[in-house]
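We emphasize that the prediction below concerns an isolated chain of 552 residues; any contacts that depend on oligomerization or on bound cofactors are therefore not represented. The input was used exactly as deposited, without trimming of termini.
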Amino acid sequence: MDRVKRKRCNNNSAGEEEQQQQQQHLSLGSDSFWFHPGFISTPQLPFSISCSAQEDEDENRVCFVPSDVILAPPPLPPLSNIPWFQCKKNFEGGPTYKKEASGSSSSTSLSSESDRGLVLSNPVGHVVGNGSSPSGPSGARSQQVLAANQENSNTEENECVELIDLLVTCTEQMRSKNIASVNHCLARLGAIASPRGPTPTHRLVAYFTEALSLRAARLWPHIFHVTAPREEEDGSTTAFRALNQVSPIPKFVHFTSNEILLRTFEGKDRVHIIDFDVRQGLQWPSLFQSLASRRNPPSHVRITGVGESKQELIETGDRLSGFADALNIPFEFHPVVDRLEDVRLWMLHVKEKKETVAVNCLFQLHKMLYDTTTAGGGGAALRDFLSLIKSTNAEAVVIAEQEGAHNGVDLESRVSNSLKYYSAIFDSVDLSLPLESKARIKIEEMFGKEIRNIVACEGRERVERHEGFDRWREMIGREGFRCTGIEETEVLQGQMMLKMMYGGENYSVVKRDENGAASVSLSWLDQPLYTVSAWKAVDFEGGSSSSYSRIG
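Result of the prediction step, given as a token string:
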């Protein structure tokens, strides 16, 4: 360990130079986590690093850091080492991107050739000029403007390539515990990337940089002191509503799930939906409309909504009750205020012989994968939750999950797979909302929170453990469920929604059939994003009941 003294000296130029060099590695000059390039003169870390010793009234402040931290950082690897890009130089010397189909991200790793082809459509996000030649007196000025815009465009493209290179290098150096390289990469990433950046890549990498910074602080708390960003109480609610207005993602999941439920409730008199994450109940008005339009609508509809906010559940129940009254649907809302893993069967008020039960489980199963006590994935938490679902004697279990492989043990695979996945998400949002949109910022912050959990957290704290449908088919099937398949009407519903509301470009809805288990996925270009599937407990086909009670 080297002992480094930082003296307050205004007259000694050599001391000032030494202090500036140290600050380049050890401190941030502003209070905010992110800063705009050019605000401070030298590239600095995108987080603050404080010393372990307390500052006193003395002139000297002493910091103890490993000697390799204050050495010159090693050179970065060449651009050709970037696993997600294949670039070639054009005649002007700038990089030309070669897009490839990303395919499924379920088998991605940093070292595999299949990783080459990260979906970064429209990395700059702006079209420069219209291709026509300027004429008239202002022709020279127009050419200058176009040339300046083209130069900015090339700069942004070069920065995108550098950002991915730095992100890969930082992840590798973190594995090898090279603190000097990690420090260097994070400093450079913080100087270029920003959640208010000009391209989706700048903004996406900013959230990965934040996550890696938090991870570095957990690995080396005596070196990196990072303050986690403050989260708003209703931030996710506001962001999800905004996403529902501009993106087909929520509508695809809700409409497809509802089509499965409508098929299940055909000819049924009393129906009961158990929603394990009801939130604001955005899914259910369209289902109510479809049920009310039937020749013989059900005589009673009940929704059991699970959530951790009592106030939100009350508001959701009142809103849905008002909507059902307007359609003359006899409706009952039963709130369950508890964590998902603490829900018991008696809380759900299941009346087996008097009603047809269906379970709606959207984006919840992956949160149960923190317990890996069972070989092959899953564990006691997932097993207990699926056993609870079995006990409801549900005629249908609708499951929706992110189509990603973000639950790898090693950090590099998680960063590789999640970078491909969220680049498609950010690209899709970028084409829907302008750069200055507050809604876009909220939406990207919501996904940034997921990125932060995937990269920075471990153990039980890491809840965003997304898996692909092939893995879910194995884990759910092992617990006594079979996939009941997807009807063509459910696929056509999603395709029609895309065509009518979003023009059918870039997004696609595709039915997938893997070893007899059918599901339907929403994709952006060639990257699958979300998958919906339907299941039924095998034990209940003969009318047997479950022994699972979870009373205690």
